Amino acid sequence: MSQSTFNQTTHDHYTESGEHIVSRDATLASIGTWLKKGWIDIANAPVESVFYGLVMMLSVMLVYFAFSNEPIMMFKITTFFVILSPFLATGLYAVSYQMSKGQRPDLIRSMYSWKRNPTEFALFALALGIIIAIWSRIVPLIAAVVKSNSLLIVDPSAGVASFLGSEAGQSFLLFFLISASLVSAFVFSISVVTIPLLLRDTKVGVISAMILSFQVVMENKKVMAVWAMTIAALVAIGIVTLGLAMVIVMPLLGYASWHAFNDLIEVDDGVKDLPL
Fold first, then answer.
1. Quick one: residue 27, left, alpha or beta (phi over 0 = left, psi -120 to 50 = alpha)?
2. What gap in Å lies between CA 204 and CA 189, rounded to an integer?
3. Which regions span the lipid bilayer (predicted)?
4. C-alpha to C-alpha distance for 184 and 177, rounded to whole angstroms
5. Exposed (0-12), middle (13-18) or buried (19+): which is 70, by Cβ within 10 Å?
6. pLDDT tens profile 33-64
7. 13 contacts 215 by C-beta, under 8 angstroms
8. What is the SS3 string spanning 39-65?
9. How many C-alpha atoms does 214 have within 13 Å on its Cβ side?
């Protein structure tokens, strides 16, 4: 059920436990607000922001150098990072939440914020793991269709450049991007509010959180589509710079996503609102 209050449409949702949660519609202008607040959080938590940014930067570099001569594997693992990004950003959500409550950012506590709701976090990680397992089977099929597995890279030092410069490599990239976009869109739709909600509301179950996340995306199709493309563009910048830009991109998107959640979902600040 939806209703309009002060020119803002709200929607009523109920979890399996009967808890009432209200979602609000966002506008395209909200995206700029979320990013602006993300920048402010980076300035207010520089140590925590750099830490999480460096972790992602080193991860991207490790994947690149470990699989520079195995382009298909590189693309597959890169997608793993995209799928897991909501879970990897948990610590950043916690840092932003700490500051919103007037607390000093605490890196150690943010790293263990999942302990607030361990069972549901584990189930969500399992759900993402299943998606990754399925995706890991799809990528070789794409390669087989375009015969990329039989492609010989004449100059191993060229790595990805040599692969993408070939006809088979370009065909693989086209099918890969289409498939990866569909998988990423699904993961985005069930994740956009799931992790933040599990942090804020210990009474909600992961299934209810994912369903609510999907419903919120459907309620804000245009805004969420642009937000997803914004995230994809920034992550792409982080990847093509061999992870260097991730030092900024990772914390910016993590904090901005937290503020997006707070604009989209109204959580009752009661006994559930415990320090992270």
1. beta
2. 18
3. 50-67, 73-95, 121-146, 172-195, 224-249
4. 10
5. middle
6. 999 999 999 999 999 999 999 999 998 888 88
7. yes
8. HHHHHHCHHHHHHHHHHHHHHHHHHHH
9. 8
- The burial class, CB within 10 Å (0-12 / 13-18 / 19+), for 6 is exposed
Q: Which two tokens stand for residue 240?
A: 């093509």
pTM confidence score: 0.85
Which letter does DSSP use for residue 2 in this model?
E
Query: How far apart (Å, rounded) are the C-alpha atoms in residues 166 and 93?
Result: 41
Give pLDDT, residue 237. 92
Q: CB-based burial of residue 130 (10 Å sphere; 0-12 exposed, 13-18 middle, 19+ buried)? A: exposed
What's the mean per-residue pLDDT of the chain?
A: 84
Q: Which amino acid is at 12?
A: D
Distance (Å, whole) CA 130 – CA 84: 11
What does the pLDDT look like over 172-201, one tens digit per residue? 888 888 888 898 899 999 999 999 999 888
